[in-house]
Amino acid sequence: MAGERNARPVRPATPPRELLHHGLVGAVLGFPLAVWLSGALVYHAPYAARSLDDIATYQVAMWVVPPLWAAVVALAFMAPSRRACWLALLAGNALAWALLQAVLA
Fold first, then answer.
1. pTM of the entire predicted model
2. What is the distance between the terminal CA atoms of the chain, rounded to a whole angstrom?
3. Residue 85 counted as domain residue
4. How far is CA 28 from CA 10, 58, 85, 86, 101, in A?
5. Which of 6, 16, 59, 61 gives 42 a disulfide partner, CB atoms 3.0 to 4.6 angstroms apart?
6. Is residue 21 part of a domain?
7. What is the distance between the alpha carbons of residues 63 and 73, in angstroms, rounded to a whole number?
């Protein structure tokens, strides 16, 4: 009985505010990441080298943004802390921008 009296209440592993934070950061930083990755897809795809004027190339790039964005938002919840979430998504944006610049050069 004495052990029950001193027992701490069970707290959830992840507070709701942290989940909201990860979701919002994933949504805000995930959109440019998805756009830059789809932009790199236009110039890096095997079929794009011979058909940059083809509208289908740009349709594929346009329609790949929502699944990429949703994947980034979903993966943002795997970050162990707020700082790790920010750092991972900022690093991903920087790498995607660098990839797009390398593909355009």
1. 0.76
2. 72
3. yes
4. 32, 23, 12, 11, 21
5. 61
6. yes
7. 17
